[in-house]
Amino acid sequence: MLTSKGIIDALKLTPHPEGGYFKEIYRSEGVIKKDSLDFITHGDRNYSTSIYFLLDQADYSAFHRIKQDEIWHFYLGSTLLLHTINVKGDYKRIRIGNNISEEEVLQYVVPAGTWFASELENKNDLHYVDVL
Predict the structure, then answer these.
(1) What pTM, to 2 d.p., does this model score?
(2) Which parts of the chain have pLDDT scores under 70?
(3) Which end of the chain is more exposed for a tag (fewer CB within 10 A), N or C?
(4) Are 19 and 59 in contact (CB under 8 A)?
C-alpha cells in the first residue's frame, strides 16, 4: 500500500512554500517576455510548468493568488477540497477526487487572478495531484 512517506521518498518531493510537498517535473523552454504580460506579473514567465503535489493528513495549501491558469489533475488519495475566490469576490468549493458520482471532478482549472487554498476532506489520508 502506498503511503505518503513512500510517495515523498520515491518521487523526491520537498516541502512546498504554501504547504504540502512538491517536485517540479516540467518547465517549458519557451518564455513569454515581461513586456508582453500584464502589470501583475514580475519578470519573464515560462509558457508552462508542471509539478507533482501531495497533501498529507493535516497539511493544507494556504490561500494564495495565481498569475496564470492552473490545471489540477487527480492521481490518487482522498478528496481534495479546493476553496476559490474569483476576481469578483465569489466563493466556490470544488471537490477533486475519483468519486464522480458524488460530484467530485478528476480535473479542475483555477483561472488566473483567483485566490485559492486546498485541504484534505479526510484528514487521515493523502491526496496526490499534478498541477500544470
Answers:
(1) 0.85
(2) 35-43
(3) N
(4) yes
Task: Check: CB of residue 108 under 8 Å from CB of residue 97.
Answer: no
In this predicted structure, what is the pLDDT of residue 131?
A: 81
Cβ(90)–Cβ(115) below 8 Å? no
What's the full length of the chain, in residues?
A: 132
CA gap 90, 86 in Å, rounded: 5
CATH T-level topology, domain 4-131:
Jelly Rolls (2.60.120)
The set of cell numbers assigned to 27 is 518547465
Can you give the pLDDT at residue 116? 96
Which residues have C-beta within 8 Å of that of residue 10, sequence separation ≥ 6? none
Q: CA quadruple 36, 41, 46, 49: dihedral positive or negative? A: negative
State residue 68's pLDDT score.
Answer: 84
